[in-house]
Fold:
Amino acid sequence: MLLTITTEHKPATDLGFLLHKHPDRFQSFDFSYGKAHVFYPEATEERCTACLLLDVDPVGMVRGKQSFQVAQYVNDRPYVASSFMSVAISQLFNTAMGGRCKDRPQLVTTPIPLVARLEVLPVRGGENFLQRIFEPIGYSVEAVRHPLDEHFPEWGESDYYSVTISGTKTLSELLTHLYVLIPVFDNDKHYFVGEDEMQKLLSKGEGWLSSHPEKEQITRRYLKNLSSLYSQTLVQLDERQDIETAENQLTKVQEELLETSFSLNDQRLGAVMATLRASGARTILDLGCGEGKLLRDLLQDQQFEQIVGMDVSIRSLEMAQKRLKLDQIPERLGKRLNLLHGSLIYRDKRLEGFDAAAVVEVIEHLDPPRLSAFERVIFEFAKPRTVLITTPNREYNVMWKTLPAGQFRHSDHRFEWNRQEFQDWANGVAEQHGYSVRFLPVGPEDEKVGAPTQMGVFERV
Structure:
């Protein structure tokens, strides 16, 4: 079983320092279930690839030396990525997975372009499951499915794939994601699963699992469908998500206080509403709807016959439902509105067929590597006739005396673009997906730094 990790970060040979494995050496390690080998088929300043080759002994697994839960001499364990590979990653790359490197300490926390390839991965759930798991945490996915037998094509396809994931990540993040998720795709483990596995999942899932759209499926499979452990873990993950939500709400209040002096949020929503009315749209998506402020305005306008609000946060959707008093409004109004739980970084057929989509102050909350997935979801798959996107103008931040220099307006912002950066991104997206785009300032416009909010209006050509 082969795992390769490649980077073109320069100098690419820094990968050897991060992994604590020298590129000029072929190293072998003994495990109770076989041998592992680490080597580098290429190691230049421009490109470096590290390989972990796992040679599993199928006979040794069955003969009783170990407590492996493998019942037959003939099995797929020597040939596929499974929990054996996860154990090898954790033992051979433990320092790298823990985010430690004394020779390149600054690189440990620096996201770099990484490509990981698993030659054969059993995926119980198919290619769509691969995308649903990897794309929300910032990877693009390529998968090639293997037939059951090339000599007998009538037997059909197997559950085995060659999988390549790529993204701009720290090496620690990549190794942690692989460690957790490889057994999830296989839906099996070769060792006993108890409370220590629950604690491992909570530890390795810190910062990403509690907000993952598929956290329940990941948790269930990682813990081998043991209902007691699964329930305990979900409770703790939900508690962590509640803490994250509370922190986000606090920073959101701080952001709103920053903008209160001239009611920027009201001007932003007004600009969005006016543009949607002018587009002639009758069916509207509010993507990243949050607590429902735009939804409230849309409901009050009879032009909009069908309105859908979607958000990745269940708590935000619950707050939107309360804000809009959906249990009290007249039935004719309620029929026009639907709230959906979902993510903007993997395809959702429920978003197809709408006249317009509004994405208001959302993209800056996405990790930059996830933007390409967001672009495809909106412009390639959903394909509304009109798309409105608003995002902060970083240049305007100097106008707020209470905002420290170099700090974003919201602690959850992953980036804030200046006007040129936003226009370069928007023009590229429009050209690639068959849209035209125009730009509108929102809020009081300064001669030098522009307006506080910038809006792109995309129209399908």
DSSP finds 16 helices and 14 strands in the chain. Residues 65-70 have pLDDT under 50 and may be disordered. The CA atoms of residues 193 and 223 lie 6 Å apart. The radius of gyration is 25 Å.
